[in-house]
Design goal:
Chains A, B: Pfam families: GAF, HD_5. Two copies of one chain form a homodimer. By secondary structure, chain A is an alpha+beta fold. The first copy, chain A, is built from 13 helices and seven strands. Chain A has a six-stranded antiparallel β-sheet with strand order 4-3-2-7-6-5, with helices on both faces. In chain A, helix 6 (203-217) packs antiparallel against helix 7 (222-234) and helix 7 packs across helix 12 (308-322). At the A-B interface, strand 1, helix 1, strand 5, helix 5 and helix 10 of A face strand 1, helix 1, strand 5, helix 5 and helix 10 of B.
Chain lengths: 344, 344
């Protein structure tokens, strides 16, 4: 027979192998460092039946290791700096070899500093270097085996896993670098536009932070939270299209001038529209001058017709404007301000 | 003994296992789709002793498969669209099961279209679905086993490899998406700034493209090529700090006004400086008005003191300016223009 169709969806491998390989695949399911560290530490705790896993990373231009750990049940990432020369971790990093210490109280190498900082009690350690080819990225420590001692055969699994941990963390670092570059860029541009408007010093930064906090408060998560930040940063970017003499006019604007100012939401839309990845951000910016009572611009949308992110930016934007001085009035107090924003 | 030090740097595993796992790790060593596809196809050709490997991907919002293949010894990626329902690939995708066809001439399922397009002669195929949990990303085809037939045991390796291929390609797609977003953003901002300067329509786009081409011509690669593009896009971004009335002045500028225009390289530096990832881009922009003879600005640097990327932008910028009409003169011919740029 020349055609072979497998009767079951894929085939059977030994359960251990299959589950291990799927677990490793899970390291790559995200490009966010925090998410990856969480997955790796949890996976290794499970595989080795250990109480805790800590990951020590050495960044390229630093001469110390950065220490990451997750406490069970907590979502918080602890970050501590460790000197390269210290403790079992330092030895493993320096010698690029794994090490098992089944009773740390009998080991002179053991450095108590981390336990003192974290309040955790270390008994036994399996530590292995993270690397790929000639590059060394750091060290993984598997701590307190629950059932007996770490054994040499455990190191086989470590060897298998080590390059994957290293690459997963490196990729996340690369991803975060370009994401940081993106955020840095839009912040800088927003500030450059802000610099043209003499009344708004620091406004962009405040709107970014407050939009993020308010979005979190109303339950947004992950990408939506990121979008709230991006929209907060870029909400006034369209002012780049408003002539300087109107933007910088120290007196009250005429009706015609105000109509021109209103166009900044349209200009923002035009600037962002060619970027397909901005499609969820544009409505948040385009509609951030709509009002819940329908008296806003550009379309006079009402209530929940206005996209949620636009409502968030709108509240934060108004709040910050009222909390700032203007040539024709002083800033409102926080209390008065809050009242007025929520009356609006 | 409570402390166990392994005498050799890490331990031995069977050579096959070790090399396979290292080969899989290689899929993740880059976040560039093209590089990853090349690695995956080459690795699978080697593992299965096959003549060719093709990867078919289904993007989320498309109802066809995109086909990628590398011809041996060529660096070119071929991209072809295939209907979801067609051929062995379509069957494997639809049924989410692997399939071995050791003589395609005897199979009614086989779709000749791809061979006709690529000029390649297919004899035998092992095809398996790319997926992870419930998501299906596409299909991998391993073509023309050089020594005999594909066997069921080959599918064990496919199963092991499948999730890694899927994740590696997904991560690259995610990375490219944010990279595209970054480029889209800086292009849009550059165009918004350009829109304030009535003499420069399309200038940014041309400088981006020409800078890239010239950088390639002088032998730059990878990140340096990307930097040439970024610097090309952003070279005039500092004009956001120049008052409209100077930028838009239809007559010749006074000496004082020209001094203000010159500040655009300083403003660009100030805008980009807070972004640490921009450190290689800033000199290219800051010095793009220096001249080889030392008569440029802002520092009067000479010859090779001027960073290479800045020299590239400078030539391209001058070339494009001379090739464009100005209110006070027509564009120069390509020949005259080239002469004048290289005399400069």
């Amino acid at each position: 027979m020349e055609v072979q169709v497998l009767s079951r969806p894929f085939l059977k491998m030994t359960i251990f192998k299959k589950s291990l390989i799927y677990k490793i695949a899970g390291f790559f399911i995200s490009l966010e460092t925090k998410e990856i560290l969480k997955r790796i530490t949890e996976t290794l705790e499970e595989i080795f039946n250990a109480e805790r896993v800590s990951i020590f990373r050495k960044k390229e231009d630093r001469n110390y290791l950065e220490f990451y750990t997750f406490s069970r049940g907590e979502d918080e990432l602890k970050k501590i700096k460790i000197e390269l020369s210290k403790g079992i971790v330092g030895w493993v990093y320096k010698n690029n070899r794994p090490l098992i210490v089944n009773d740390v109280s009998k080991s002179k190498m053991f450095y108590k500093g981390v336990d003192e900082l974290t309040g955790f009690k270390t008994n036994s350690i399996l530590a292995f270097p993270l690397g790929l080819k000639k590059r060394r990225y750091g060290v993984v420590e598997i701590i307190n085996k629950k059932d007996g001692k770490f054994k040499r055969k455990d190191l086989k699994i470590c060897e298998l896993i080590s390059p994957f941990v290293a690459i997963a963390l490196e990729n996340a670092a690369l991803f975060e670098k370009i994401e940081e570059m993106f955020f840095g860029m839009i912040r800088s541009f927003a500030k450059a536009v802000e610099a043209k408007d003499p009344y708004t010093s620091g406004h962009v930064e405040r709107v970014e932070n407050l939009s993020y906090l308010l979005a979190k408060k109303v339950g947004l998560k992950g990408n939506e939270l990121k979008n709230a930040k991006i929209a907060g940063i870029l909400h006034d970017i369209g002012k780049i299209g408003i002539p300087d003499e109107i933007l910088k006019k120290p007196k009250k604007l005429t009706k015609e001038e105000y109509e021109i100012i209103k166009k900044h939401v349209l200009y923002a839309k035009e600037i962002l529209e060619p970027i397909s990845e901005m499609k969820d951000i544009i409505p948040a910016i385009y509609y951030h001058h709509e009002r819940y009572d329908g008296k806003g611009y550009p379309e006079g949308k009402k209530g929940e017709e206005i996209p949620l992110l636009a409502r968030i930016i709108s509240i934060v934007d108004a709040f910050d404007a009222m909390a700032s001085d203007r040539p024709y009035r002083k800033a409102l107090s926080a209390k008065k301000n809050t009242k007025r924003v929520f009356k609006k």
